[in-house]
Design goal:
Helix content: under 10%
Oligomer: single chain
Shape: globular
Distance between the termini: 41 Å
Strand content: over 45%
Order of helices and strands: EEEEEEEEEEE
Length: 122
């Protein structure tokens, strides 16, 4: 059984940084994708980026490319989302999820973490 646990959210002023962690357990291999998603108040859930865990290949949405970085620590089965130069529009509940598809579409993912709130003030 796959378990996904996200942590690291908080409040920060515009221009600041946060690092989110996503701990994954239950996989017998690293042949899966891990996506980062967010959902702001009154908005649809959207993809932030994805990493194919087996190779470390990443993809980012245009809104965050150059500011956010996805990395991994295989020894800890943990994927990180480093968020720099944060903007108020980044305020959202952030989620991580795993699945078999290398995609930023939420519908492509099966196992979801609980989410962590990120709030960026102006």
């Amino acid at each position: 059984q796959v378990q996904v646990v996200v942590s690291g959210g908080g409040s920060v002023q515009a221009g600041g940084s946060l690092r989110l962690s996503c701990e994954v357990s239950g996989y017998s291999s690293r042949y899966y994708s891990l996506g980062w998603f967010r959902q702001g108040p009154g908005k649809e859930r959207e993809g932030v980026g994805v990493i194919y865990v087996a190779t470390g290949t990443t993809y980012y949405n245009a809104d965050v490319k150059g500011r956010f970085t996805i990395s991994q620590d295989n020894a800890k089965n943990t994927v990180y989302l480093q968020m720099n130069s944060l903007k108020p529009e980044d305020t959202a509940m952030y989620y991580c999820a795993t699945g078999s598809s290398y995609s930023v579409a939420p519908e492509s993912y099966k196992y979801w973490g609980q989410g962590t709130q990120v709030t960026v003030s102006a």
